[in-house]
């Protein structure tokens, strides 16, 4: 899952970024409201974390623009102030939740998980499954036919994305956008390499891979 973090305080930003990356999220960072808005509407994020007080454009204005543009991405607002009116303004502008600084990282993570489970994606379940593959988002464990397999963070993120899109053809560009960050080179063969890593781990003993290569289009995870 790919998250946009818009926070101008460098220490806070790197603290959040590091923590989220350790949890397997892909994180892009912006340090002012204008850059945040640029990223938010040019990339397809699964969640935006938006600080309220930002240079150039404040968080409420960024959030309002995101909603004006019709983007339904969940927005979690961060505020240093505990003023009720800020929260109301943020929620009025279309934020889905807010968190007052300082906060414990675990609380941020719990809010993020709750937002990612909301019906926007119509997927409230914690376990994604297709064929005999099961992936648990909370414990970050994966089973193939009751046998647990161990995946790297990237393999896990790739499998999660394929399972969310099971039976659909997903292009390399879509995969890159949700599983890798802005610095990813779409012309490299990294995605194909990771698809092969994943196949080695989930296809043992099968005649045919669960991850079908659709020539000229991308990949499809076969659900049945
Ligand atoms: Ca700030």
Describe this entry's structure for a reader:
The protein has 8 helices and 12 strands. The chain is α/β, with parallel strands linked by helices and 224 residues long. It folds into 2 domains: 2-117, Rossmann fold, CATH 3.40.50; 127-221, Orthogonal Bundle (Arc Repressor Mutant, subunit A). A 5-stranded parallel beta sheet has the order 2-1-3-4-5, sandwiched between helices. Helix 2 (33-42) runs parallel beside helix 3. Residues 120-124 have low confidence and may be disordered. The site of calcium ion (CA) has 5 residues, from loops.
Characterize this entry briefly.
The protein has about 220 residues and is of the alpha/beta class. About 40% of the residues lie in helices and about 20% in strands.
Strand and helix order: EHEHEHEHEHEEEEHEHHEE
The whole-angstrom Rg is: 18 Å
By CATH, the superfamily of the largest domain comes out as Response regulator
Oligomer: single chain
Rounded to the nearest angstrom, the distance between the terminal CA atoms is: 24 Å
**Count of DSSP strands:** 12
Which outline best applies? Answer: elongated
Strand ordering within the main sheet: 2-1-3-4-5
What would the CATH topology of the largest domain be?
A: Rossmann fold
- List the bound ligands: calcium ion
Number of domains: 2
What helical percentage do the residues reach?
25-40%
- The overall pLDDT, averaged over residues, is 89
Biggest pleated sheet:
5 strands, parallel
| Secondary-structure content class | alpha/beta
Name of the CATH architecture of the largest domain: 3-Layer(aba) Sandwich
């Amino acid at each position: 899952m790919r998250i946009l973090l818009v926070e101008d305080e460098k220490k806070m930003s790197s603290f959040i970024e590091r923590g989220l990356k350790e949890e397997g999220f892909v994180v892009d960072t912006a340090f002012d409201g204008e850059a945040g808005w640029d990223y938010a509407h040019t990339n397809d994020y699964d969640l935006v974390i938006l600080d309220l007080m930002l240079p150039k454009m404040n968080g409420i204005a960024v959030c309002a623009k995101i909603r004006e543009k019709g983007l339904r991405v969940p927005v979690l607002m961060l505020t240093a102030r505990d003023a009720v009116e800020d929260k109301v303004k943020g929620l009025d502008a279309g934020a889905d939740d807010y968190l007052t600084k300082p906060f414990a990282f675990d609380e941020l993570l719990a809010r993020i998980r709750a937002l990612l489970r909301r019906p926007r994606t119509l997927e409230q379940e914690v376990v994604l499954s297709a064929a005999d593959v099961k992936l648990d988002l909370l414990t970050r464990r994966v089973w193939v036919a009751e046998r647990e397999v161990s995946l790297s963070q990237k393999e896990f993120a790739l499998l999660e994305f394929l399972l969310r899109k099971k039976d659909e053809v997903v292009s390399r560009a879509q995969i890159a956008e949700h599983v890798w960050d802005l610095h990813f080179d779409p012309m490299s063969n990294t995605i194909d390499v990771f698809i092969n890593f994943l196949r080695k781990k989930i296809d043992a003993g099968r005649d045919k891979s669960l991850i079908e290569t659709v020539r000229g289009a991308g990949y499809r995870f076969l659900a049945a």
